[in-house]
Amino acid sequence: MELYRWHQQVVQGQINDARRHVAIILTDETRAPVARFVLHGAWPIKYEPPSFNAAANEVAIETRELTHEGLERES
Hints:
The chain is an alpha+beta fold. The chain has two helices and four strands. The chain has one domain. It has helices at residues 2-11, 15-18; strands at 20-27, 33-48, 63-67, 70-73. The two termini are 29 Å apart. 4% of the residues are buried.
């Protein structure tokens, strides 16, 4: 729900209040961290919900797109 509320802040025009520092951690198949990126002053600009098909046996993928004022790779 926190991601949803953050997106709603932006939709309602509260972009300055919605800017956050965000860490994106890439992991391998054992969930061990392999890379870490920090987005400075980030806010969501797009949300795409998963498409569900009851007849299919597929993974549901949800997409969130962020914009930011700076990117830093920590490891």
